[in-house]
Structures are given as structure tokens and as C-alpha cells.
Amino acid sequence: MRLSKARKACVTAMMKETIFEAANSVLERHGANGLTMDRVATQVGLTTGSLYNYFRDKNELLQCFYTRLVEPGLQAIEETASTELPAPQKLENILRTAWQYAVEHRGLIRLLAGANQGDEVRKEVRPRFLRMLTAIFEQGIREGDFRPHNPALTGRMVLGCLTELFELQAEDASQEEIDEYVRVLIDAALHGFSIHAGKASKPAGRSRS
Amino acid sequence: MRLSKARKACVTAMMKETIFEAANSVLERHGANGLTMDRVATQVGLTTGSLYNYFRDKNELLQCFYTRLVEPGLQAIEETASTELPAPQKLENILRTAWQYAVEHRGLIRLLAGANQGDEVRKEVRPRFLRMLTAIFEQGIREGDFRPHNPALTGRMVLGCLTELFELQAEDASQEEIDEYVRVLIDAALHGFSIHAGKASKPAGRSRS
Amino acid sequence: MRLSKARKACVTAMMKETIFEAANSVLERHGANGLTMDRVATQVGLTTGSLYNYFRDKNELLQCFYTRLVEPGLQAIEETASTELPAPQKLENILRTAWQYAVEHRGLIRLLAGANQGDEVRKEVRPRFLRMLTAIFEQGIREGDFRPHNPALTGRMVLGCLTELFELQAEDASQEEIDEYVRVLIDAALHGFSIHAGKASKPAGRSRS
Amino acid sequence: MRLSKARKACVTAMMKETIFEAANSVLERHGANGLTMDRVATQVGLTTGSLYNYFRDKNELLQCFYTRLVEPGLQAIEETASTELPAPQKLENILRTAWQYAVEHRGLIRLLAGANQGDEVRKEVRPRFLRMLTAIFEQGIREGDFRPHNPALTGRMVLGCLTELFELQAEDASQEEIDEYVRVLIDAALHGFSIHAGKASKPAGRSRS
DNA sequence: TATGAATGAGCGTTCATTCAT
DNA sequence: GATGAATGAACGCTCATTCAT
């Protein structure tokens, strides 16, 4: 009896997972506004009504994206951000971690990009992300890695670039492209593109060819 | 007879314009998902059905955003881009022009930000914008203003930053904030934030004052 | 143009009336819980969605019962109650008026009897009716027509009897039966059924101590 | 084998009882329209599906209210009614018994008051109650306690007043109020409220014939 | 017999779209 | 051309009911 109860809970949890992944996949294919309970159900091979055995309502399913993806993702990233590394290194790590996340959960991005549906999720994610990036730029300035500037704005920029990174991935870019994107972004953040800029930092090689 | 025909065409065109502007205003107030034919009609002072005398369907109305806003906007920007200026200056001009556009057509941004509705429009705008930005970076590299790098990627980044600029405006940021954002962005593009960056090349202070 | 606008308003009003009557008839046939937008629509010969051209939502349609039936009905009855007649006569008039109303709007009663749907309506009607009946008994006591007693309770009783009157009508009772019911009710209110009633058998005080 | 069969039947019967009581309690808490199989199951500690081992469908469960509550209640009342007491006394006893019942089974009243759900139950209860009350009035008339009149109608009235009594209780009236209500009702039935108590108002005619 | 997962019909509601006038 | 009434598909959600295990 007790076993079966535990088993049930487990099965239910797995089902929630399955449904959630179905939602994710629907999200990937149809975007935030195309995320229909019906489509999700079909994707799992269920009827619409059955979903409600696992989620009280659509919102709870959506919340799931937050609980299962956003929250741990953000935490992972925030962990990265709370290391002792210098700001530029942190930035790179964060970008890579975020991108990694995006790769594994392609649907999430479309939800975050969506207009109506994931509003509550997005409302949470953006400012949190922004705060974190801002903090990193603050650190960079404080520690002398970055020139003084308004870190809230640069935080924003990186967020924008990150969004584009997701877009890149949505377009099925290769791993190499992604890698390069991150590299170039970090590089730009550090030295910009002015040719006079990195004289020393890029002693030879690329800069002149 | 021919005259009346011409007049008719003209009147129709004006009406389309009116409707389109109504849609724009609805977009501003209610966002992409709140853009219903009904609301548009009410805004113009027509009936829902009447709209279909001017636009085959909602999509065609949406297309209008492309024709009337995006297209001229892009053209303005592309003009800016086709001047003889050096790339960095172009970049700044473009950003300012784009931002100006966003200010004047707040609805457009909400459409582009929306998930489903303006998909086709967005599908057009992005690559074109991207191409242009890429070209500028190519120019900058060619002319020795920028270090060699993959310009398609930097174009993307700027596009991302631009999107954030729009977001900034959507949050009702002040003119000063916007200005600063653009300045910082240009600055970053040129020199990055590394404090060691231009050690010699930038002996004193900020690059842009 | 102006004419057509007026005409439209008129036509709309008539349609609302039609729909409302359909709702009424659905109510009669299927009871409060069977009052479906779909059924109403079918009854009118429309699609469900069309109803929403006339009523914002189901609740507004329900409100209509209050506005069109309950309110004027109660007002008519309250007018009856505010005349200069002695209480017993008022009582009779009220019962007759109420019954008249019930005859003309059979659905209303089922709504009032319903559990969920017409809750808001009923929440208004009962206390108002109760207050009125109570007032009449108060008057009757004050003017010496009725023996002193708790008029709130007798008000309740009459309300209960009235409900039964409606039930009677729901069972398709004949006019004669109804008439008799009212007569007997009035009679009972006045003299009760005790055969010894006025004899003097109750020289002092209450019958039951 | 036979024993186990009997035991089985017994266990089943007890389970039905349990479920029924759960339904009752759900009814009390959530009203007629809130009576869902799911809630009942939860209340018993079973699964929804299990209920169907004991009741073919929801209706059969509802029927149970008739068998277990209404039937014995009516029988108790009918017993009261079949005593040798004079009609007025019977009336009072019945009212008190009915009220007692209502107190003990608050759920039942909510079911009877509900619109759809308990329809079949109500369809049974009303006429039976009516018949009984009618019989009492017949007796009263026969034995000379009541003036001659149509007893079916007065039965109805008392039924209506009884319903209001239930309503009173649903509003959480105090025991005193209830008592007073019954007292006043009996009083009214006997003597009405006319202060002249019929002395002159009914000089001749009906009262004696 | 209990379970619990699944069903399917139904509800209220929205909205792009059509069409006779 | 404008109207406005009507449509129908879709959506989120509920709940009685079924059935393999």
C-alpha cells in the first residue's frame, strides 16, 4: 500500500515531467501563443482533460517552466556569478552556462520570448538576470577590469546579446558558431572592435592580417 | 470615369492608412495580443466587417506594418548606412535613427516583440537589419576601424542591444537614459570595457565626450 | 444614418428581448442548472457565439432577469404595498400581483429556485420581498388588524406560501385553483382554521404558552 | 462460502453507508452544485472510480438520500401523523419533527433546495409530504377543529412555511427563533392574525356550513 | 475490490471572418 | 462601401464515467 503510494507519486511525477516536456516541444514548434492545452495533450497522447489530472490549470503548467527550468538555471548561473573569478571570466562563464541551458531547453526561450503566456515567468527572469549582469559589471569596474560606466546599461546590452544568442540557436546554428559568438562577445566587451584598441592585447595574429 | 476610378483608389489608400494607424494605436495601448480587428474597427469608427473591404484578412493588415513602417524605417536606416561615413559613426547614426523610429512608432515595437502576430513581419525585418549591420561591420573592418572578426556575429549583437534599447523605451525610460545607452553601446563597440584596453591609444579619459 | 442607428439600437433591443425570452423558456424547460448559453442560442436559432453580440456574458443575461422581471415586479408589488389600504387587503393584492407576475414569467421562478445560477438575483429578491411582507404585518399589527406577533416570521411564512403558489402554477394548476389558494391563504392569515376561532374562546393572550 | 457472501454484502452495505454520509457532509459544506463525485471520494478516503463499485452512478447515490434520509424521516413524520391526536397537535408535532430532521441532516435540505441534482428525490418527497399534510387538515376539518376548506391547499401552505423554516435554519437561526417560528405558524394556522379573530368578519356563511 | 489514469461531452467565452442588405 | 448580424473553430476548464491493472 505504502509502496504503491510512493510508486504512484513517482509515476505522477514522471507524467508531469512528460507533459512538461511535451509542452516544451509544443513551445518549440508553435511558439508561446501556440501553446495550447490541446496540443500539449495530443503531443503526450492524451486528451485535454487528462492534463488536468497533473496540473491544476495551464498556469500551473507554465509555472513549471519557472520551477524546473528558470529557477535552477538562474541558480546555476548565479552560482557561477558568485565565484571568486574576475568579472570578465565570470561573464564568459555565465554566457556559456546560459547558452548551455538554452540548448537543453529550447522551448523555454520561446516562452520567454512570447508575449502573453509566460508573462509571469518573464517578469521574474529578466530583472533577476539583469541584476546579476549589472552586479558583474559593477565588480569589473570595482576591480579595475572595466572602465567606469553605467553597469546597468551594459548589463542590458549583454542581456540583449544573450537573447540573440538564443535566436542564433533557434536558427540551428552550429556549436562552432555559438562558440565563436560567445568569444566575440567577450572579446568585444573587453576590447571593443577599435583597431587601435587592443594593440598590446592582440600582439600579433588576427588583428593585422 | 477614369478620374473617379483614380479618386476611388486614392480614397481607399487613405482609408487603409487610417485603419493602419488605428491598428498602430491599438497596438500601443493593448499590445500584440490585444490587437483585435474589433478594437481596430472601433478605433477607426468603422465596423469590424468594413475592415475587410480594405484588407483581405488580419494578416494583410499586419503586413501593412511592414510596408508602411518597417520598410521606410529600414530605408531611412539603410540610407544612413549608405553614406560615406566611417563605420563607427554609421553605427551610432543607425542606432539613433532606429531609436527615433521606435519612439515615433511605439506600436511597431510591441508588434515585433509579440510572439505570434507579427511573425511574418519580424521574419522580414530581422535578416534585413542583420544584413545591414553586418555590412557596416564589414566596412569597419575593411577600412581598418574595427579589428577583423566575424561581422555577422557582431551584427547580431548590436541587434540584440538594439532590442534592449526598445525594451528600455517600453519601460518608459527617460531620454537621458536612452542617450546614455546609445553612447555606452557605441563606446563598448569601439573600445570595450577593459581598462587596459587603449592604454596608450587613449591616453586620457573617455573616448567620447 | 441617424435613423439607421436608432433602428439598430431598436433591433438590438428586440433581439435582447428575444434572447431573454428564449432564456426564460429554457429556464422553464430545463431549470436553472440547465440554462446553457448553447441551449439559449439554439432556442433563438442562433449560434452560441452570437449571443455575445447582445450580452457580454452569461451573467449579464442573468442580470436581465433582475432588470426586466424582478425589479419591475418588485416595484409593482411595492407600489401595491405602499397604498393606503389596510394590511390584509394589501396582502391579498400583493399575492395576486406576485402570482400574476409568476404566470407571465414562468422561467423566473425556476431561476429563483435554482441553486447556483441566479444566486445574485435571488440574493436580492428574497430579503426585499421579506422586508415588504414584514412591513405589512407590522402595519397590520399597528393598525389593529393583526394580533401582535413577530412580523418577520409571518413575513417568512407568507413568502413560503407564495413559493408554493408558484409551485402550484408550475404544476399547471387552473386559474380557479390559484384563486382559491390565494383566498384560503388570506383567510388563514386572518382567521386561521380553528373552528372556535373568534368565539371568544381566546379571551386572553396567546393560544400556546 | 455462504457466510463470506453474506459478510460481503454486509461490508458493501456499510461502505455504501459511509459513502453516503460522506456525500452528506460534502453537501453540507459545498451545497448541491458542489457535490462532485470527486469530493465525495476524497471525503471517504477512496478514489472516484471506487465509488462506482457501490453506486451505479451519481444518481443512485443521490437516490440514497431518499432511501436513508427522506424515507425514514417521512416515516417518522407519518408515524406522528398516524397517532390519535387532534389535527392541530399533529401539525405541531410534524413541524417539530421535520425541523428536528432538518437540523440533523443539514445536507439533505441543501439537496432538496438544489435545482437539478436532487430533482428526483424532491419529486418523491413533495407529494408524499403534501398528502400527509392534506390528510391532517382533512382530519382537522372532519373532527371539527378546522373550518371546512380545501385541505390540499392548506397542506401546500404549510409545506411552503416548512420550506421557509429550513431556509431559516440555513441562515443559522437560533433555536429560539426556530421555536418561535413554529409557534407562530401553529398559532396562525389555528387563529390567524385577525385581532377580531373572525367574530364579526365572518358573521355567517362559510364558517359553519 | 481499489486504484488511478483516461476519457469525452459539455460549458462559457473569444475572435477572425463572411455576407445579405 | 458600410453595416451589423451571424458564424464556427478554438480555447481553458470541469466532471461523471470507464476500465485495465
Report the CATH topology name of the largest domain in chain A: Tetracycline Repressor, domain 2
The profile of the biggest β sheet of chain A is:
none
- Unreliably modeled segments of chain A: 197-209
How far apart, in Å, are the first and last alpha carbons of chain A? 74 Å
- In CATH terms, what is the architecture of the largest domain in chain A? Orthogonal Bundle
Largest interface: A-B, 56 and 54 residues
Explain this structure.
The structure is a homotetramer of 209-residue chains. Chain A contains nine helices and no strands. In chain A, α4 runs antiparallel to α5 and α5 runs parallel beside α8 (151-170). The first copy, chain A, has helices at 2-30, 37-44, 48-51, 58-81, 87-104, 106-113, 119-142, 151-170, 175-191. The first copy, chain A, folds into two domains: 1-56, Arc Repressor Mutant, subunit A, CATH 1.10.10; 64-191, Tetracycline Repressor, domain 2. In chain A, 73% of the residues lie in helices and 0% in strands. The termini of chain A are far apart. Chain A has 209 residues and is mainly alpha-helical. The first copy, chain A, binds a DNA duplex (21 and 21 nucleotides) through α1 and α3.
